Amino acid sequence: MQVRHGIAVSPGVAIGPAFVLGVEDFRIPKDSVSIDAVNVEVERLHAALEKVAQEISANEALAAKHLGKEYASIFGAHLQFVRDPKLIEQIERRIREDHESPEHASSQVLRRYAKELQHLGDQYLAERAADIFDLERSLLRHLLGEQREELSHLTTEVIVLAYNLTPSETAGLNRKFVQGFATEKGGSTSHTAILAGALEIPAIVGVGDFLTDISGGETVILDGNEGRLIIGPDEKTLEKYRLIKERFQSKSQALRKLGVGQAITTDGVSIEVCGNIEFPEEAIQCKERGADGIGLYRTEFLYLGAMGERSEEDHYQAYRKVIDTFGERPVTIRTLDVGADKIPGAMKHVYNEVSNPELGLRSIRVSLEYLELFKTQLRAILRAAVFGNARVMFPLISSIGEFRQARMVFRDVCEDLEEQKIEHNPHIPVGMMVEVPSAAIMAEEFAHEVDFFSIGTNDLIQYTLAADRSDPMVAKYYNGSDPSVLFLVRRVLFAARDAKLPVAVCGQMSSNPMFVPLLLGMGLRNLSVTPQSVPIIKQLVRNISITECEELAQKCYQLDLARDIETFLRGELKRFLPDRDLP
Ligand code: PEP
Ligand code: MG
After folding, report:
1. Of all protein residues, whose CA lies closest to atom 8 belonging to ligand 1?
2. How close is the Cα of 296 to the center of ligand 2, in Å?
3. Which ligand lies nearest to the CA atom of residue 300 in the structure?
4. In what order do the strands lie in the sheet with 178-183?
5. Phi-psi category of 403—alpha, beta or left, where left has phi over 0 and alpha has psi -120 to 50?
6. Which residues are annotated as a binding site for phosphoenolpyruvate?
7. For 75, what's the count of Cα atoms within 13 Å in the CB-facing half-sphere?
8. I need a surface site. Which of 19, 30, 118, 155 has the fewest CB within 10 A?
9. For ligand 1, is residue 167 a contact (CB within 6 Å)?
10. What structural domains and CATH numbers belong to the chain?
């Protein structure tokens, strides 16, 4: 049994067979082989090995012809490896004596070899490990033949383990069969992490190297509460986690009830708790959990996984669905925030050469570059806005000129719709996300231009502290408690207060109970959080007074270390939110 740790990004516990993606892309059955079938299975192994050998020989001949003998010799080494009697004997033994399937036995043996090579401390040999994974892949392809199960065609429940999952791959996960996922890469507020929460799939990211330690089909426990991945658990651990899983499920059900009713502090201040969504289908779940509206609808997920462009009608239908669900309650629709890691299939070629996508053509910059795309979306928003209380919001605004430019396009679209006599609502509030430090610095000036602010702490933290939000290697630098981040958030809240402008925080910081008293103490009255956290955040608000929050904020301003601020906030949270209320 091995225990690995990562960053917990979506709560819950999953127990099941591993589906190792990226290395084999299909699932390896661990089924045991009955005694009568052992000979047949061993024959199947030999047949598959022979086919792999034939493939390698064909490649060797091809390489010799086109590239020369020295390149062909690489394949010669591969051939020797698949014909190595010692290797074959080890696999055979696992089939005959341990009754493992040939797929599982060969995967285990080959991976052990690969790992040994990786740990010999020699760069050349470590790189040869990749060749062994390649061989494993070929062998499995032949062994599994038609039966191989791909991620897109799952028929049974699995836990997906991958080097990394892009937001579009995550968005495409089949919730019925994918019980959880863990990735070697990823950070706490990466879009993949946010999506895991939206899909309500227990997940951990940033685990570091672990894929070579596991074969498909092996049982794993994924603990999305504590950020733990347990490979090959013993019976006692399995039993313990089955209980934790049950308890978590019943607690989650009980927690939902806390969403009912308003969130009013003990000194009578009403706090609006809205929800963040990525898919229109989430609107209903958000409402059921007690959200006062939608504070952030990330519309780019309409594009992810889509092959081509989305029509005005596609946009319109999606927005209507959300607006209709919330009636008179506010629905804040953010225009496309593609680029960086959220790249729609159809635009991949544009980004292939980009060395630093987080600082590249992203978000509002894409909309202003591809005006037709932008106008299509704005038309749909303005049309859907006739049916409820919609607001439009531009992401990643970094200068006043940029906001004016976007607003101008908005006005042009209103005029077009007017001329075409198409029903629309030109009076909807037009706001911006404050998620680039330049925008926070200029908040007072922006306040004269916009109808509302929404602070995107996920990006604000990464750009303020120069720490990629999805890179686990710099996770320790990515810190919402840093005084510089708090300074900027406060600055925006003060600018909004002075200009009597609505302001919300829609970054993950407001979904984290630890930060909520501080944000309220700084003057925030509107939070937009993940659907799952709506009930707990509402309950927290009901347990505190604004006076206490203001005192707490004053104490934080005195501290100059992120670590001290975090320790202080954690301690305070225990006072406001007893353990029994925590998920
Ligand atoms: C943010 O940056 O805080 C935000 C809410 O936007 P996203 O996470 O989609 O970048
Ligand atoms: Mg953002």
Report:
1. 458
2. 10
3. 1
4. 2-5, 228-231, 219-223, 13-21, 158-162, 178-183, 203-205, 7-10
5. alpha
6. 298, 334, 458-459, 469
7. 18
8. 155
9. no
10. 2-26+149-253 (3.50.30.10), 35-143 (1.10.274.10), 267-581 (3.20.20.60)
Beta strands, E only, 324-385: 330-334
Q: Is the CB of 337 under 6 A from ligand 1?
A: yes
Q: Could you identify the residue written with the tokens 């043996």?
A: 109
> From CA 166, how far away is CA 391, in angstroms rounded?
29
How many Cα atoms within 13 Å fall on the side-chain side of residue 531? Answer: 21
280 Cα to the center of ligand 2, angstroms: 19
Residue nearest to atom 1 of ligand 1 (CA): 456
Listed residue (427, 411, 430) closest to 419, CA to CA = 411
pTM: 0.79
Residue type, 356: N
The H-or-E segment that residue 93 falls in is helix 85-98
Hey, how many other C-beta atoms are within 10 angstroms of the C-beta on 14? Answer: 23
CA distances from 542 to 262, 340, 547 (A): 9, 38, 13
Is a pLDDT exceeding 80 seen at residue 25? Answer: no
Encode pLDDT of 159-211 as tens digits: 999 888 877 778 778 889 999 999 998 888 888 888 898 888 999 999 998 88
Q: Which residues contact 343 (CB under 8 A, 6 or more apart)?
A: 166, 168, 350, 351, 357
CB-based contact 276:506 (threshold 8 Å): yes
Half-sphere exposure (Cβ direction) of 133: Cα atoms closer than 13 Å: 22
| Pairing of β 270-277 and β 263-264 | antiparallel
Q: What are phi and psi of 537, to 5 degrees?
A: -70, -40
Is 191 one of the catalytic residues? yes
Residues contacting 9, CB < 8 A, separation 6+: 186, 188, 190, 193, 196, 197, 203, 204, 205, 224
Give the percent of the chain with pLDDT over 90. Answer: 64
Mean pLDDT of 72-96: 86
Residue type, 543: N
Q: Which residues pair with 28 in a beta bridge?
A: none
Which run of H or of E encompasses 380? helix 371-384
Residue 389 CA to ligand 1 centre (angstroms): 22
**pLDDT tens, 57-67?**
887 777 777 66
